[in-house]
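Moderator note: this is an archived Q&A kept for reference. The question asked for a predicted structure of one protein chain; the sequence and the answer are reproduced below.
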Amino acid sequence: MWHAPSPEAAIAKAEEEAEEYVEIFDNDTYIGVAQSYWIYDELRNGAEVFSLMRDSTLEPDEYVKTFFRTGAEHEGDVSESPEP
């Protein structure tokens, strides 16, 4: 999350970080996609910090498989997360 005066400034910060990140991990590539979401809410439990809406004719299960559960995700098990 970036504190920035505009969406464009936040994206510029994200792109800069992405370029630094790929220098650390040799097998990664920044593909040039960064998104911005203006947080209009106070940061607290339940605050919305990102939103993405897309029109689709796909059924819900197929939509998730197509866009979010492709099988190529790098995910972890939340039960293995360190305690805060």
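Archived answer notes: The chain has two helices and no strands.
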